[in-house]
Task: inverse folding
């Protein structure tokens, strides 16, 4: 099994090869606009990131939490002269807008779904920096498996498509996008992370400012970082006996009903074979082999992230 990040596996889909070795792209909608004179102060009290320190055009990871420090949503934050944008998965936008709007009503801030006003294009591959975005578009830095992202007005869709075509970019399918995401260990909202998790459990440390003032859920996050130990954490899984489906739970054979780990995402990687993501409790060490006595073909080896 090749381990080099530059090795091309025989038989890999064309879009996977492009995303690894050249240029690939994927449109991924989901934008919330927060406007009004109090927008920065309002979001400063709602999000884990330091909103007031954000420069125009800058992008930072962020999350919104419950009062108990659990995840409601997470994504990226982008500032512009007239509004602050939250970039989220499309299926998370409606709930996030409703949640934020409840609190914005008491301040000079308005929250709305602005998905139809923007085009978001994820870029993959080493040739991404050479792509020339259309006028009015903003180039955002990469994260996880992404080499970058283009945020453009919806009116620039045709120009954006022309730019991608001229650069030889290949559309990346949802299946391949999932493989690439799992390979680097980036959690997906509603799949690997959600309202049962605190940010640090699922690798979202960069989304949390350690210097800003109070925000919803801060007390729980700070207490855990100061005094607590994580009970579980996001890990990778290799499946040497063949694919193991998401939702599989590995129990401790020496302690009835005690969960050791749970698979949340799974894919067949052209580079690494059957792999997955999931949550493992702290007593499960990296390199540990987990087995399901009821299904001998379900074997998982706990792996560090990203896969290599």
Result:
């Amino acid at each position: 099994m090749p381990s080099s990040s530059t090795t091309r596996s025989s038989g890999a889909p064309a879009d996977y090869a492009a995303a690894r070795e050249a240029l690939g792209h994927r449109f991924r909608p989901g934008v919330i606009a927060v406007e009004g004179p109090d927008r920065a102060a309002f979001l400063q009290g709602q999000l884990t990131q330091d909103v007031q320190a954000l420069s125009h055009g800058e992008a930072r990871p962020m999350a919104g939490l419950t009062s108990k420090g659990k995840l409601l949503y997470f994504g990226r934050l982008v500032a512009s002269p007239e509004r602050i944008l939250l970039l989220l998965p499309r299926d998370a936008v409606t709930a996030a807008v409703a949640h934020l709007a409840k609190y914005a009503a008491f301040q000079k801030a308005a929250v709305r779904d602005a998905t139809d006003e923007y085009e978001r294009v994820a870029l993959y591959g080493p040739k991404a920096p050479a792509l020339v975005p259309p006028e009015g578009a903003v180039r955002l830095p990469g994260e996880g498996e992404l080499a970058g992202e283009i945020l453009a007005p919806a009116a620039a869709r045709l120009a954006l498509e022309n730019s991608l075509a001229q650069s030889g970019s290949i559309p990346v399918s949802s299946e391949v996008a999932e493989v690439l995401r799992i390979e680097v260990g980036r959690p997906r909202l509603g799949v690997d992370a959600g309202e049962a998790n605190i940010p640090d459990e699922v690798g979202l440390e960069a989304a949390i400012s350690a210097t800003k003032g109070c925000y919803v859920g801060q007390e729980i996050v700070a207490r855990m970082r100061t005094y607590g130990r994580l009970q579980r954490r996001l890990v990778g899984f290799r499946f040497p006996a063949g694919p193991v489906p998401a939702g599989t739970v590995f129990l401790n054979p020496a302690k009835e009903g005690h969960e050791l780990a749970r698979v949340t995402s799974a894919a067949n990687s052209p580079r690494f074979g059957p792999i997955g993501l999931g949550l493992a409790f702290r007593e499960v060490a990296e390199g540990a082999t987990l087995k399901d006595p009821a299904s001998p073909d379900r074997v998982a080896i706990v792996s560090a992230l990203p896969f290599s």
Q: What stands out?
A: The chain has a mean pLDDT of 93. The two ends are 10 Å apart (CA to CA). Residues 187 and 193 are 6 Å apart (CA to CA).
